Amino acid sequence: MSGKYDFKEVEARLAESWERNGVYRFERNGNAKVYAIDTPPPTISGLIHVGHAYSYSQADFVARYKRMRGYNVFYPFGFDNNGIPTEILVERNYKTTAEDMGREKFSRLVEEETKKYEEMYRRTWTQIGISVDWSLRYSTISKEVQRISQLSFLMLANERRAYRKESPSIWCPKCKTAISQMELKDMDFKSRFITIQFSDGIQIATTRPELLPACVAVMVNDKDEKNAEKIGMDVTVPLFGNKVKVIGDRRVDPEKGTGVVMCCTFGDLTDIEWYKAYNLELRIAIDEDGRMLLGKYKGMKIREAREEIIKELKEKGLVLDEKEIVHTVNVHERCNTEIEFLVKKQWYIRYLDIKEKLIGLGEELDWHPEYMKVRYKNWVSGLQWDWSISRQRYYGVPFPVWYCRKCGEPVFADIGALPVNPLEQQPEKRCVCGSESFEPETDIMDTWATSSLTPMINGRWKTDSGLFERIFPMDLRPQAHDIISFWLFTTIVKSYLHTGKLPWKSALISGHGLDSKGAPMHKSVGNIVEPKVVIERYGADALRWWASSSAPGSDASFQEKELVAGSKLINKLWNVNNFITMNYPEASDAKEGAGKNIVDRWILSICSTTIEKVTSLFEQYDYYTARREVERFFWIFCDDYLEFVKYRVYGGDASVRQHLDGVFLAILKMLAPFMPYITDEIYAKRYSKVDGSTSIHVSKWPVSGEFAYNKESLEHGWRVAKVLESVRILKHNIKMALNAPVKELVISERIGEGEDDIKGAMNISSISIGEGSAKVDDLGISIELRT
RNA sequence: GGAGGCAUAGUCUAAUGGUAGGACGGCGCCUUUACACGGCGCAAGCCUGGGUUCGAUUCCCUGUGCCUCCACCA
């Protein structure tokens, strides 16, 4: 039994045995109350780092706690492999593109490639000890998920919630697709702010002179004294010669540039607002590839055209000023390309009209931590566009739609025929106009349009009778804070539109795992720490210990020392087990009694209050404080209690055994959610038989009432412990070994019960009453040692 | 520009309207039969300024710095 703990051997063996024995299996027909978790399906994008381990472990703490509380835990796992990130991964790995390869061939390649990654991910998650039921695994590109996603679309289209509209869309010229507001990020670019002379004394400062040909109006602020008089005038656009009106609008900042703005279709969001508000002409200057469409610049790249136009303006003396500036522009978050606005036919889901309702649902959700709610609210309040769900890409869930070649009307697939790929199939009916000739929709759905359906996917919506009803609304949505405005929000949208309800009761929002300096981990920065490397060195339990080292919602930097602390704890647990087993080979199966000895009653009282605290903290999803409570208790157990009882153990006092076992088992159970391997290993070796479960992870969570609590014992026990501490310091001060024999302890007043334990723990022969030279903290008594 | 979070020893991190706890690291003592991957001990800390208060690290305001998210970006 003794010997070192070999975490590598144990972790590999247990991971395999949990899987083989179905320890985490969800009971389809079980009677126990269901606890359903809407696990985040990680994007297959190539890299796994300890940040993933950080947030998934936090959800797992809760899952394991709930399981031990007797819930039938529904804890699935999914892979999000249907969208642009996956496509880009494959393009990068194989240095090819879907266009080059052909759509069919490329899709097959993506499928094969993602399978490899999925296996790799699965191994890592299993190693980390995430207690998901792998039989509930899903992939967002699977036929089943495509069916659900298409079904959702058809239902929304049927209600006119999903609509197709030609409208300015945010466009990435590199990826050649429309993208959503969510996929934008900011980047700073150097640029030139150029003041251009228009006709009639109008001067306009712009960073985008190449949009001159798309200029459809000139805007000034209607309250701007120096410019307001120009409202209503016709102005000629330089180089291009077309006439445009001057319009007054409050959105113009009179202090910026010259206080005059050109409205081009389209340079930015404000242009779009003006275009809509004033019914302006549409002049499209840039095509899907980011090339110019108008005038002699046709075919030029945006930047070339910009240079060319500046050159010509200069030749004509129309450039009045030129300044180097750094300005922030919106770029596509995946490829860092400056976005453009193009007019395209896109599918949208209308939700601007239900903003208030969505904000209300956010209020109803039980957020952990609470302040994350605000982010959701701000996001929803700030929405300006309906949800654009179509993408001009290749790999993803197709729209089950064709368009009639004759009348242009969309024809939707039959629900019974789903999933449908319109590129390979034809509609089963004629168009209302009688035509049988159709053009398939070639766009695919945005990945969020599908991943927003995870509760439906988990519940095998509309096929599996009863499962959806059993798990929905789900109990918990665990996820990181960065995607509150994406995944959490869109899931609420879909859930509300399809069921009228919130998809879950609670949300547990995790922070990010950062590098040791507190910076986000990025492949490009080269600061990625891979879980498997950490597991190799310290073990999964230690990695998880780090994940439990900060509160829900807060970021944590990756600290090696937190792993060291975890390793030490693991070692300590192992050695406590060695100690107990060495003296008592079999675990006690006695019911915990009150305890005769004061230190027994003391530790039982602390145990009772600790269980109570830890349980209620877990109920509030505060795994972090819970962990600290257990940890604190465990060190009291080791450093004080075990020292107190050693003399009785060696002396053959049989009454100690049941307390050692009872309390240690409670500690193991409370640590089991955090350190599943070491706790289960000890449980299997020592407690499985007397406790009656095959694994600690399906054993019963400790009950505080089963450990006798007594206020006086608790207080008196602490007095005894304080004296012990003081004696330790005295022995230390005279360079004595802590167990070296001492003739006599002089103490200013009787301690009463517990004196024997002090004598036993500190190897003291006798205790006498008298004033001592040293004070015991807080107790107002003094002591002295006579050797 | 708006919103949210954070600021505590060399490092990471708690609690608290009245002596700031823990971990890692440092230093020292103890070779003690669960553990030297150990035990015990020591040193070391509340971002700036203002307010409320008998008293502020804590509550309020301000500044500074860091991290998110959003908006703007002619």
Overview of the structural elements:
This protein is α/β, with parallel strands linked by helices and 787 residues long. It is 40% helix and 18% strand. The chain is built from 23 helices and 29 strands. Helix 18 packs antiparallel against helix 19 (623-650), helix 20 (656-671) packs across helix 21 and helix 22 packs parallel to helix 23 (755-762). The radius of gyration is 34 Å and the shape is elongated. The model has no long low-confidence stretch (mean pLDDT 89). The protein binds one RNA strand of 74 nucleotides through strand 8, strand 12, helix 7, strand 13 and helix 10.
List the keywords.
four-stranded mixed β-sheet, 787 residues, elongated, four-stranded antiparallel β-sheet, alpha/beta
Biggest sheet features = 4 strands, antiparallel
Structural class assignment: alpha/beta
- Unreliable stretches, pLDDT < 50, 5 or more residues? none
Radius of gyration: 34 Å
The helix tally amounts to 23
Range of helix content: 40-55%
Strand content: 15-25%
Q: In total, how many beta strands?
A: 29
Strand order in space, largest sheet: 6-5-14-16
Determine the N-to-C terminus distance. Answer: 38 Å
Which whole number gives the mean pLDDT?
Answer: 89
Shape: elongated
